[in-house]
Amino acid sequence: MEQFEINKFEKGISESIYKGIGDLYRSVGTNVDRDGVIEANQTLTKTSASTVVGFCKYVVSSKTGKSFWFDTDGKIYMENSDTFTKVGDMSEEIFGAAEFNGEIYWATASKEYKVTNTSTDFDTDKSEVGSFGNGTTPHPHMIRGTDLYIGDGNDVVKSTDVTSSVLDLAPDMTIQLLGTYGIDLMVGAKVNNTNSCGMFRWNTVGTSWQFEDYISEDGLNAMIINNQNNEILISAGSRGNLYSYDGSNLYKTRQIPGDYSTSAKSIVYPNSLANFGENILIGVSNSTGNPCLQGVYRSWNIPNYKCLNLDYVISTGETNSIKIGAILVRGQDIYVAWQDDSGESTTYGVDKLDWSSKHSGAYFTTIMYRPGRQLIKNFKELVVGLEALQTDCSVAVQYKADEDSSWTTIKDSPISTVNKTLKRLQQYIDFKKIQFKFTFTTKSNTTPAIEGITCKFEPTNKYE
């Protein structure tokens, strides 16, 4: 009898159903941080109650300890100790925001506004900073040194004068991102009506930028500096592509796995990247056609490879037809804004990571195994090694053989015996290639944990 092992969980999901650096093809709501073990992750729980009624694309984490959330309808919400309150309504979309010198700044399409960060009534207390010279959206905000810079069409302006440009890009460009690289300002822009985008590095003193690099994508989505290695990570285009920037050049490093086309696109919104320890959280949204699973992915680096896992599922439980808005990390707390279009009516909210509850329904599917691809094999046994299984927790096991379009539950599934540490699932299946799915049922903050899996089979003398 021959066998193969399934135990490479810690490297996240593969880029292909047939091969990858690890054993996972899809991994949803799982934790792969424990070496050699996979289990259900913490769950996201709605914390905004019924207050948030729009899609919050931008968030400002204030030095007051509060946070301010801006939705696409122009409503502004203040979060204070997990209680959300509506504090303003611009009645038009907001395209960027920041806190600077004790004030909250935000932009509509044509104007910049500000208010003191202690205000609880933005409608009454706000003042108009000025009207933009171009009025071209979006208006990314970024502090560099003692200045707040804002994008406006092909111009970079300062909060002290949003009409006058301090850096001009080509007239056919639109600035989409602002960031920092050391003491320099990073400017990301697309060339209008083309499949070209550029990153420009400017020291804020010279009359022009010092470095530039272009990639062939239909837009720049989001940018963040990785706390782990000072790498700049950039989401670009509508095919889930991730790029690394080294100060002068862009390199593609990974893609959110999916089936992309002209009618199936994804997007990462500008405030949907966040550092969480040595990891980066990536909020992946549906643009059209649901090309990939959507939620909060986690990215981390191992030598010469960027790993990915879909760590967190929004509180509605959906991973299709959703949008992930602003992500805020504050200490060990993670807040995630979302929009759910999967039902008859659209719903909205802001979730918070619940450290007292695991995500029931978390699952992973393996890659498709093809030992001796041309031979028909006879599956005999799946041996699942577990940490001692607790009361009301279980693991459901399913398989697909060859070209099956749906999952079949394997005999003796689910695994649910209390204190079980080794389970043998025996069933006879003829296959040329085979794939498995494992789904966790959790209770409160207790989850099953799989240490390793062995698939045992016998080759036959039959060819397909």
Topology, pairings included?
Blueprint: E1 2-6, E2 24-28, E3 30-31, E4 38-40, E5 42-46, E6 56-61, E7 67-71, E8 75-80, E9 83-89, E10 97-100, E11 103-107, E12 111-116, H1 122-125, E13 127-131, E14 141-144, E15 147-152, E16 155-158, E17 161-168, E18 173-181, E19 184-191, E20 197-202, E21 211-215, E22 220-225, E23 232-236, E24 241-245, E25 250-255, E26 265-267, E27 273-276, E28 279-288, E29 295-302, E30 305-312, E31 322-330, E32 333-340, E33 347-358, E34 363-366, E35 375-386, E36 394-401, E37 408-409, E38 422-431, E39 434-441, E40 449-463
Antiparallel strand pairs: 1-40, 2-34, 3-4, 4-40, 5-33, 6-7, 7-8, 8-9, 10-11, 11-12, 12-13, 14-15, 15-16, 16-17, 18-19, 19-20, 20-21, 22-23, 23-24, 24-25, 26-28, 27-28, 28-29, 29-30, 31-32, 32-33, 34-39, 35-38, 35-40, 36-37, 36-39
Structural write-up:
By secondary structure, the chain is an all-beta fold. The chain folds into 2 domains: about 140 residues, Sandwich (Jelly Rolls); about 325 residues, 7 Propeller (Methylamine Dehydrogenase, Chain H). Helices cover about 0% and strands about 55% of the residues. The strands form 9 sheets. Strands 1, 3, 4, 35, 38 and 40 form a 6-stranded antiparallel β-sheet that branches. A hairpin with a 2-residue loop joins strand 27 and strand 28. The radius of gyration is 24 Å and the shape is elongated.
